[in-house]
Specification:
Helices cover 20% and strands 41% of the residues. By secondary structure, it is an alpha/beta fold. The protein has one domain. It is globular and about 30 Å long.
């Protein structure tokens, strides 16, 4: 998924305009997005268990600045491509 595709999908009004943040779901646990790293032509979402969720303003800014970049996520030293997401209440879940 490219940054522009994700940005377009999350700015379209749905149930909530105020997202709590982006989270990675592992079984019944939601792990918050702690940082976004830029590498070559990729935006890497870094998730950390006990981190404070990255403010959505920062997420929107990075997505707008790097629209053509491929989205990946990093968790427990594993880099994985992002192919989609879903919304649960006011959380964006990968």
């Amino acid at each position: 998924m490219r940054a522009n595709d994700f940005l377009t999908a999350i700015v379209i009004p749905t149930i909530s305009d105020n997202y709590e943040g982006v989270f990675l779901q592992k079984k019944e646990t939601f792990i918050p997005l702690a940082a976004i790293e830029v590498q070559e032509t990729r935006l890497i979402f870094n998730f950390q268990q006990a981190a404070t969720p990255l403010p959505m303003k920062e997420v929107y800014t990075k997505l707008m600045l790097y629209k053509t970049f491929q989205l990946m996520y990093s968790y427990e030293n594993t880099l994985t491509p992002i192919y989609g997401f879903h919304q649960l209440d006011n959380k964006l879940i990968l």
